[in-house]
Design goal:
Blueprint (H helix, E strand, L loop, with lengths): L16 H25 L6 H13 L3 H13 L6 H29 L9 H14 L6 H22 L2 H17 L20 H12 L8 H26 L12 H16 L6 H11 L2 H16 L14 H24 L5 H4 L1
Helix pairs in contact: 1-2, 1-3, 1-11, 1-12, 1-13, 2-9, 3-6, 3-8, 3-10, 4-6, 4-12, 7-8, 8-10, 9-10, 12-13
Length: 358
């Protein structure tokens, strides 16, 4: 393909099994990420070998959200949209479940005495609105980011569908270049201009579209991208360990989603799935397809399930501490993922349940 030719759209991307498989894996790794976070934050307070296990799992799971955005780009940037119709359909799908679960998290925070309501109804309304404004739970930032991306997708899709490969690569190099400039270790060379909106998740949208459409030469197969994934994973794990050791405290420098290490990690696993022909048994494929249909609901609900599993008041003691972290972290994540899937499936069976459980 010439670099001056427009990049062809992926054929029927919604029917590609690899995208659904990757989506399900990314969701599971987001649960692992949140399972490991308490141990990771306890740097210096837990045994070093335990903390290293948390470091490994955390690094491994860091591609979850970037891959979500790349999948969105792969699926949505290849088509033309009428602005009003696109926003109506997309926002209607994500906002009602988001509002429902936000209110659930507000209610749980009140139940857990993290927030206090008063006898003044207007004050209570302002408390709830404050929670909705800043996110009723730590993981809901993703929805605010996704809403912002939806507003730009109809415009961005026109650019990428008509751009040449050279122009797409120029856009991605510009995104990467600005991202690198904003890294803390280059602070002395930073022109002190806030490039955050430029270097944000917008680039992941275009990267997902490009990598899903790119025709790679035969020699550049999944094995090479698998090696790149492993190298970037080692860099993130080792870099986090040694920088944290140097500063005697947790450093998230290599964990930042808008950073070169995470971009390489995310892009490489994305291409590995695209170029690999994973042969799943019919039963496993059925389970994966089923779970893939509830990914958004699982994302919204899993933080509540994870909190309840580890809350001492409920005496379940299902978290990273119930056995060696190498086993307890993925096992806790699997239990949380399964219960979240069960919950949103049950909610979907209720009248109007599809509006809160998709």
């Amino acid at each position: 393909m010439s670099t001056t030719d427009p990049i062809p759209s992926a054929n029927k991307p919604r029917q590609l099994d690899w995208i659904n498989n990757l989506r399900v894996l990314a969701m599971f790794l987001v649960v692992i990420l949140h399972t490991t976070s308490p141990m990771l934050m306890a740097y210096g307070k837990v045994p070093n070998n335990y903390w290293l296990i948390a470091d490994f799992y955390n690094a491994l799971s860091r591609f979850g959200v970037p891959v979500f955005v790349m999948i969105t780009g792969a699926l949505l940037l290849s088509r033309d949209y009428e602005l009003g119709d696109f926003l109506k359909r997309r926002l209607w799908r994500i906002i009602p479940p988001f509002l429902f679960w936000s209110l659930i998290y507000v209610a749980y925070a009140w139940f857990d005495e993290d927030i206090t309501f008063t006898a003044d109804a207007w004050v209570n309304v302002k408390i709830v609105l404050h929670q909705l404004k800043f996110g009723a739970s730590y993981h809901l930032w993703y929805v605010y980011m996704l809403i912002g991306l939806y507003f730009i997708i109809p415009i961005l899709s026109k650019f990428v569908r008509n751009a040449t490969e050279t122009q797409i690569i120029y856009f991605l190099l510009l995104w990467l270049g600005v991202m690198i400039i904003n890294q803390p270790y280059l602070s002395r060379y930073n022109p002190q201009i806030d490039f955050h909106n430029v270097t944000g998740y917008l680039g992941y949208l275009v990267l997902g579209y490009y990598l899903a459409s790119k025709q790679f030469p035969a020699w550049l197969n999944a094995k090479w991208f698998g090696m790149l994934f492993l190298i970037s994973l080692i860099v993130i794990v080792a870099g986090t360990y040694f920088v944290s050791l140097t500063y005697k405290g947790l450093s998230t420098l290599f964990y930042e989603p808008i950073s070169p290490s995470i971009v390489i990690l995310s892009a490489s696993i994305f291409v590995v799935f695209r170029l690999s022909a994973f042969k799943l048994s019919p039963k496993i494929k059925q389970i994966v397809n089923f779970a893939g249909g509830y990914t958004y609901g699982i994302y919204l609900s899993h933080a509540l399930i994870l909190t309840i599993l580890g809350d001492p008041d409920y005496h379940l003691n299902i978290d990273y501490t119930f056995c060696t972290p190498f086993i307890s972290i993925p096992l806790t994540a699997l239990i949380c993922y399964s219960l979240s899937l069960l919950l949103v499936w049950l909610l979907s069976r209720l009248p109007f349940g599809k509006w809160i459980a998709i």
